[in-house]
UniProtKB/TrEMBL annotation:
Gene3D superfamilies attached to this UniProt entry: Amidase signature (AS) domain
Protein name as annotated: Amidase
Record GO terms (molecular function): catalytic activity
InterPro entries in the record: Amidase, Amidase_CS, Amidase_dom, AS_sf
Domain Amidase: 24-442
Species, as recorded: Streptomyces variegatus
One matching Pfam family: Amidase
Length: 463
């Protein structure tokens, strides 16, 4: 096994045991980027010299005093919405051409303090306003979409171009590309990870979180990045993160949705997810059927919040340089100008009602298990999907449909790979819990992974 193939936990153990150095690990990952990123285009910017210098410092520090965290000396990528001092933050848009960050975002500063090695910035759908990341190719099939908007981060982790990465999630933008590329993605509880220094899509829906090769790795990154930040008005201090515990799930109540989450889902996705849920019962979990409240209003609430908030953020640049936006993003931003204050306030009221109803639902269960996305990665350029009932749905609407509820309600949501379809494309299962029970979804994911085969496998991208 090459160093770039190691998970974060495996690499941290090797560094701690002095079986591998940060320089060797970073050079291996940089070589992997050089070998495959010309085809995958996961990165907007690669800072190879700075990464090597950081790895040299980490090697010296670990040699002198030992690692100061499990992330010390570990190479990682940041979505190109997240400021890192001295590097561009372009949001994969011509609107931001030439922009260089003056300061680290809070999450970049926390990762730097933990000793992580920044490789560069990963591509996003322009300003995170889309679910495909069109400039990036899927790690498992380059003719298919990477998913978005954190497509570059997901592909980098899946292909061995980063040991872990950070993304953002407003309607599924961590979990969708993670599921489509066969990696783990965590959208933490709203406010648990600071968004200061992170370009916003929708203030009341935005989250920052990790993309990794295992739930254990995601827990390590969350522990390093979570924490109160007075610069983020939504920031909160959560409970200590503890994902330890027994290797079974005895007594855990797993909610199985009767509605919404298995509606208009491909047969292969449904089969793989239900098989994974059955594995949870073999590990001791008890299944409880639940009704998803306000399911018919999910799309209206998501768009009713996100569209006007995004347009408000971009108001000045949309008027000054409208032609620099890509057509799909410009159309969405212009549509937001037509949203009334009444529509926005009704969406906020409906969100409050939905949060309350979901809190009552979680009173009877510990986690909710469901597909992350209703189908595997679509072909690049495919605009719509036709379901068995004759319904025609936009690909982006399809991908956001199952992930949006966790953004609206702010609950933690973890996706992990649970199989492949007939074409070898990854399938993801989503685990959700009540707010600040991030440790619960991570522990369930870890226990599932320990019982499953083939966890953390790198996508078969030929060098």
């Amino acid at each position: 096994m090459q160093p770039f193939e190691l998970s974060l936990a495996e690499a941290a153990r090797a560094l701690r045991a002095r079986e591998l150095s940060p320089v060797e690990l970073t050079e291996s990952v940089l070589a992997r980027i050089g070998a495959v990123d010309g085809r995958l285009r996961a990165y907007a910017t690669v800072a190879a010299d700075a990464a090597t210098a950081a790895a040299v410092r980490a090697e010296r520090e670990i040699s002198e005093t030992g690692p100061r965290s499990p992330l010390h000396g570990i190479p990682m990528g940041l979505k190109d919405l997240i400021d890192a001092a001295g590097l561009p933050t372009t949001a994969s848009s011509d609107v931001r051409a030439g922009h260089i960050a003056d300061h680290d975002s809070q999450v970049a500063a926390r990762l730097k303090a933990a000793g992580a090695v920044l490789l560069g910035k990963t591509h996003t759908h322009e300003f995170a306003y889309g679910l495909t990341t069109p400039q990036t190719s899927n790690a498992w099939d380059q003719s298919r979409v990477a998913g978005g908007s954190s497509g570059g981060s997901a592909v980098a982790v899946a292909a061995g171009e980063a040991t872990f990465a950070l993304g953002t999630d407003t309607g599924g933008s961590i979990r969708v590309p993670a599921a489509l590329n066969g990696v783990v993605g965590l959208k933490p509880t709203y406010g648990l990870v600071s968004r200061s220094g992170v370009t916003s899509l929708s203030w009341s829906l935005d989250h920052v979180g990790p993309l990794t090769r295992s739930a254990t790795d995601a827990a390590l990154v969350l522990a390093a990045t979570a924490g109160y930040d007075p610069r983020d008005p939504a920031s909160v201090s959560g409970p200590p993160l503890d994902v330890t515990g027994s290797g079974d799930l005895k007594g855990l109540r797993v909610g199985i949705p009767r509605n919404h989450f298995f509606d208009r889902v491909s047969p292969e996705v449904e089969e793989a997810v239900r098989r994974a849920i059955e594995r949870l019962t073999e590990l001791g979990a008890k299944l409880v059927e639940v009704e998803i409240p306000m399911a018919r209003y999910i799309q209206a609430i998501q768009w009713g919040l996100m569209v006007p908030e995004a347009t408000a953020y971009h108001e000045r640049s949309l008027r000054a340089v409208p032609d620099l936006y890509t057509p799909d993003v410009r159309a969405l931003l212009e549509a937001g100008e037509l949203t009334s204050a009444g529509d926005y306030l009704r969406a906020q009221r409906a969100r409050t009602m939905m949060r309350d109803d979901w809190a009552r639902m979680f009173g009877g269960i510990d986690v909710l298990a469901a597909p992350t996305v209703p189908m595997t990665a679509a072909k690049s350029g495919q605009d719509t999907v036709e379901w068995a009932d004759g319904t025609v749905e936009a690909v982006s609407d399809s991908y956001v449909r199952l992930s949006a509820p966790a953004n609206i309600t702010g609950v933690p949501a973890l996706t992990l790979p649970v199989g492949h379809d007939h074409a070898g494309l990854p399938i993801g299962m989503q685990l959700m819990a009540r707010p600040f029970r991030d440790a619960t979804v991570l522990r369930v994911g870890r226990v599932y992974e320990e019982a499953a085969a083939d966890v953390g496998r790198i996508a078969p991208v030929a060098a």
